[in-house]
Amino acid sequence: MTTIIKLLKNCFAKLNNLNRISTNRKYVPLYSILGATATSIIVYKIKRSRSVKLLKLTSREKRFIEFASIEFNGQIYMTPQDFLESIIEVEPKPRLKRKILDHKDLDKIKNTTPPLNKSSSSLFRNLENNGIMSYTEYLFLICILIKPQSAFKIAFNLFDTDGNQKVDKNEFLLIEKIFSNTWKKKRNIKDSKPNNKSSIMEQYVDDEQGLQRKHIVDTTILIHLFGPKGNVDLNFDTFNRFALNLQAELLEIEFVEFSKDLPTISELDFAKILLRYTYLDTDECNDYINRFKKRVRVNYRITFEEFKLFCQFLNNIDDFSNAIRIYTLADVPISIKKFRRAFKICTGKSINKNLAKIVFDIFDENEDGFLSNKEFIALMKNRLQRGFMSHKNNRGWNKFKKCFKQEFKTFILFH
């Protein structure tokens, strides 16, 4: 009973976290009531002369707004710590309001942001709340997290508009311009004629939610990649290292959470990690875990490098899906041998026999020695998104039920 009360309190605390979305009165948030708890829903009234338009936020816009804890000049931003929490946590920590930054705060951020040659897989953890990230950078970092390494070269070439194998600050900022134009097109906002003297940074969308407001701010990502003066060029090797470090940092956080500072995790921990961010409800998750417990025969410990390699494989899940489709068209079930072969094709590295056996023990429904590949691929694609996918009816009573189920699922996985 005490556990249930604690879970209920956690959900109410999270739902009570009302964040100020905009300082402009043209946008008025609507609210639904859950007992004594008011929760902001995803639709906003836009007052325009005599008409009222409803604006619906995307799942990523909502998530950024929920986790962003700082604001500067009317625009909301994330700290590095906010970003990590938005990837790992289901809901943001309760807070009364966002912190308002001034120019002194920005100067402090600029002076303490490390250069790219000192980049590491602990960059975001070291910076904690001493940093500032825009919404478009949030989208950019998400893309890095869920893409395979082969996609990094494609992304770099898109930035490299003049083809000199280097990316400068202005070329990098074009991605923000693209995101902004997409945002405007979706909301039917017409472009104003740009001033020839204006820079790229001065041509951002001026929306009223503080997501894409026009601004001139040297963010932590810009300073880290291009230096405090913005005169450092980025080559592919340094960009690739930055991207791999970001992926590794999230994996390290997740691994340590289960390993309790030990160098390895158990098979059961590994199973729990794989199922953690999936669409399975508590009962379904328990079914997988209980079935796995009955099948475990060897006490095998998974190292971080093995865990990291498997997660890199998940980033290549589309390639794996295509490879598996060849077998399924031929009506050939997927054995451990075929799975390991497809794994090597996708990653260029071999998966340990014991780890492959663990995967089959989790996802072999009938215990016939073959992978239930449709369920495996669907769940792993879902896990890869880590809450980035859109979910319907996630406000009001439905949000409370979802929150409680997730809190209970987390409690089960950790106890």
TrEMBL record:
Protein name according to UniProt: EF-hand domain-containing protein
Domain of life: Eukaryota
SUPFAM superfamilies attached to this UniProt entry: EF-hand (SSF47473)
Species this chain originates from: Psylliodes chrysocephalus
Cellular localisation: Mitochondrion inner membrane; Mitochondrion intermembrane space
One GO BP annotation of this record: mitochondrial calcium ion homeostasis
Keyword entries, A-Z: Calcium, Membrane, Mitochondrion, Mitochondrion inner membrane, Repeat, Transit peptide, Transmembrane, Transmembrane helix
Repeat in keyword set: yes
Annotated TM spans: 28-46
Any Gene Ontology CC annotation: mitochondrial intermembrane space
InterPro entries: EF-hand-dom_pair, EF_Hand_1_Ca_BS, EF_hand_dom, MICU1/2/3
Pfam families: EF-hand_8
Residue ranges constituting the EF-hand domain according to the UniProt record: 147-182, 351-386
Phosphoprotein in keyword set: no
GO molecular function, a single term: calcium ion binding
